[in-house]
Design a protein that fits this description.
400 residues, alpha+beta, FAD/NAD(P)-binding domain, 3 domains, 11 helices, disordered C terminus, binds flavin-adenine dinucleotide
Amino acid sequence: MIDVLVIGAGLAGLQCARVLARGGRTVQVVEASDDIGGRVRTDVLDGFRCDRGFQLVNPAYPDAKSQLDLRALDLRAFGRGIAVRRADGLAELGLDPKSLMGALRTPYADVRQLTAFARWIAPALGSVPRLLTTPDATLAESFDAAGFHGTLRDEVFEPFLAGVLLETQGATSSRFARLLIRSFALGTPALPAQGMSAIPLQLAARLPRPVELDTPVTGLAREGDHWVAQTPAGERAATTVVVATDPVSVGALAPVPVPAMKGVITWWFSTDVAPTDSRYLAVDARPDAGPVVNTAVMSNVAPDYAPAGQHLVQASAVLPEGADCPPVEVVRVRRPPRHRVHPGCLGLRPTHGRGGPRVLPDAHSQGIVTYGALPARLPETLTVVPDPAAGKVRTTSGTS
Ligand SMILES: Cc1cc2nc3c(=O)[nH]c(=O)nc-3n(C[C@H](O)[C@H](O)[C@H](O)COP(=O)(O)OP(=O)(O)OC[C@H]3O[C@@H](n4cnc5c(N)ncnc54)[C@H](O)[C@@H]3O)c2cc1C
């Protein structure tokens, strides 16, 4: 019998298995779907690398630095800054020394707003443990308390954070938002050259046993001094079980509450002509903007995301609160041979046809839709649920 059965081959399950194997335990990972990665997967379609929803990796995340071989991921950096689509054109807020002068000429270089922002971010400038002991509030409350108002907040930070936190009400923990902004200040977000799936592949490559795919665990039972997991392929016995599924599936296997989920939908567009050569993430600050919260020309950042001579553009929209968050899937719609898209393609609206979301058949719509979901509240990284009878179920969920 093995020491540990890990259920779920997302980043949490893979990393957990790696740590346990390093510690000398025999570990087997079982995964319900046909590949590893969970929410971090990349589909290669006609040579385009489409991650399952727009994602990026920030090399400044402490766990990314300590647990991943970032060099082997061959990271391709986004532009250090952000582009803001305004009614009067595109404002680029570059943070690297070369672009800083340009950024200072934008309407956002306003001393009063910058001072208020500095007040807001100040608690994040010290150590992370210190930040985590500061009193928490919602993001909106913390902006208000710092006196952070005006266009820099409304047109840059709120749209940017909406795309990261997947909510537009500023209801997220201010501590968490400060941690995020801190990471974005310390590191430049990037894409692995071959797609986000390079991350789970790297984690899995270091496992002594291959992940068992297409093996959903349908039930868990305690038998004497060990656990038995039921799967369509038979039973799997282990001394300890780690449930590392997504936050929704975990409810079927362990007595933990299922959180509300937030959704995001990403449209992928292919084009022969890049709408811009910018490597910035672009947000839309126009008052009538929506539903798209951000766009990026992925192939400008990581050229291998598109075949030679073509480009891949992403546009992501936050799903309205309470909207259905169906499981991740990829929907292909027609792709005309030649067309042009631009970051202003913000009028598209998702419709929920049978079988999943669809892009309205706009004359220029094309490509691939992906969608995924995040917990409405970030769960604890690791929840240990004691079993009243004997033994333990260890449950990990959410971010890893
Ligand atoms: C669109 C999108 C964008 C994101 N962007 C970013 C980003 O830019 N940066 C960032 O750091 N994070 C991002 N995240 C969050 C990040 O992807 C997740 O926090 C992380 O991948 C969660 O990993 P996990 O292992 O906890 O869960 P999951 O990735 O959900 O993995 C759980 C696994 O368990 C499997 N499973 C479920 N039930 C069973 C069962 N009964 N039996 C066996 N297996 C089962 C599932 O198939 C899945 O493979 C994003 C997420 C999404 C959806």
